[in-house]
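Human: I would love a firmer grasp of how sequence relates to backbone shape in proteins. Could you go through the record with me and say what the backbone is doing? Here is the record:
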Amino acid sequence: MVAKIQILVAAHKKAAMPRNENIYIPIQVGSAIAPMKLPGYIPDDTGTNISAKNPYFNELTALYWARYNSDADIIGLVHYRRFFSFSKKKDLNAILSETDIRDLLKKTTVLVPKKRRYWIESSQSHYRHAHHGLALDVLREVISDKQPTYLAVYDRNMARTWAHMFNMFIMRRAEYDAYIDWLFEILFAVEVKLQDDVEQWNTYEKRVYGFLSERLLDVWLAKNHVSYTEVPVTFMDKQNWLRKGGRFLARKIGFGRV
């Protein structure tokens, strides 16, 4: 039997979607608290879900939904503005195809974005400059308590100068279920400890659990010796690098993390 592939395209608003690949399924994240349902999109508030937590968990509400409500054999997540693609063209017809995915997964277990390199700082220092460091302190405490065999791997990963970001990946079902169960056991425990502090943070920083999870995928892959292949990510929108750089510098010197 041919394995069923479902690549969720996380979106909170109407956006252009792939038309030539029926494996790409638009999912409305945070649909439980949205003013309206998006026509043609799967709402992430059906079945077992955490849709209402979207302001804090971001695209992770789609991943949680798929764990309990998708029957696919291979599951992935991309964003309405970011897709896996070997082409540099901002073209939805040039993104990773079903054939590409099947061929790649014959040789590896997981597909991830190409590494984001920080060069002059570690993954940990980058996070602390961009976000509230308290979240990392609590995260490490929770890993030490609930998943102590992962702690050394976590520390090594946080000392690296690269990471696979965006919470984007494509996995076979067995690995997907195992990863999601592990991830949310940690994040829900962090949420309990952080919830009072998070309510004092601005809208951007409240997305803390989505930010933390970007640092956890590599930990799980490394600890479980899961093979992966990197695939480039194409940003469909034009990137305003001057604006992005200004925001990063503002966060780096302490502004914007209220």
In short: The two ends are 52 Å apart (CA to CA). The domain at 5-252 is CATH 3.90.550 (Spore Coat Polysaccharide Biosynthesis Protein SpsA; Chain A). The first strand starts at residue 5 and ends at 11. Residues 173-198 form the longest helix (26 residues).
